[in-house]
Specification:
By secondary structure, the protein is mainly α. The chain is built from six helices and no strands. It has one domain (about 1-175).
Length: about 180
């Protein structure tokens, strides 16, 4: 899950850089001037591939889905959001969603089968997966609230650290589901 933590930092840096005009958008596969003519879906796909280049692994695929889902959620909630000029609050929101998706998908990939196999019933297995997702959502939100209370602005390194801490805590809490 160390990759998820570093990808969270990279996502924060990329979105912040795009918004501030300091990120070399050519790295995404098009120049900054070309952003205006691109569809939201194309921008989201390119950001996802930039953050987690396809390498044939489940980890890369999962991460791309997490970036895609987080940015799509933002557009669902804020249809007028400009992906090339997100506000600080929008970037934080996307980062939170991204971390939730990264962690939940990783849990599903790593221990989902074991959770399903060890649950007393299919309904119990579904309930356990829902409990994990809700826990991850609240833990990520709490970590971001704590970060905001420090008064220090979020940056890529801090985003990575917050992600790593949440991942460790989540896996520790739900170890019993796979034992």
């Amino acid at each position: 899950m160390g990759g998820a933590a570093s990808r969270s930092g990279a996502l924060f840096d990329a979105l912040g850089g795009l918004s501030a005009g300091t990120f070399d958008a050519a790295q995404l596969g098009f120049d900054a001037a070309g952003l205006a003519g691109r569809s939201a879906r194309e921008i989201i796909d390119r950001v996802a591939r930039f953050i987690s280049p396809s390498d044939g692994t489940q980890d890369a695929e999962s991460s791309q889905r997490a970036v895609n889902a987080a940015l799509s959620d933002l557009l669902d909630a804020n249809p007028d959001a400009d992906l090339a000029a997100l506000t600080e609050q929008q970037i934080d929101w996307v980062l939170e969603r991204h971390i939730v998706y990264e962690i939940v998908q990783r849990i599903e990939l790593d221990v989902g089968k074991s959770i399903l196999d060890k649950a007393p019933s299919p309904a119990s297995a579904i309930a356990r997966m829902k409990e994990i997702r809700e826990y991850v959502e609240e833990t990520v939100a709490a970590a971001f609230r704590a970060q905001r209370r420090t008064g220090r602005p979020l940056d890529g390194a801090t985003a990575s650290k917050v992600t790593g801490n949440v991942i460790q805590e989540t896996f520790k809490v739900f170890e019993e589901y796979v034992e």
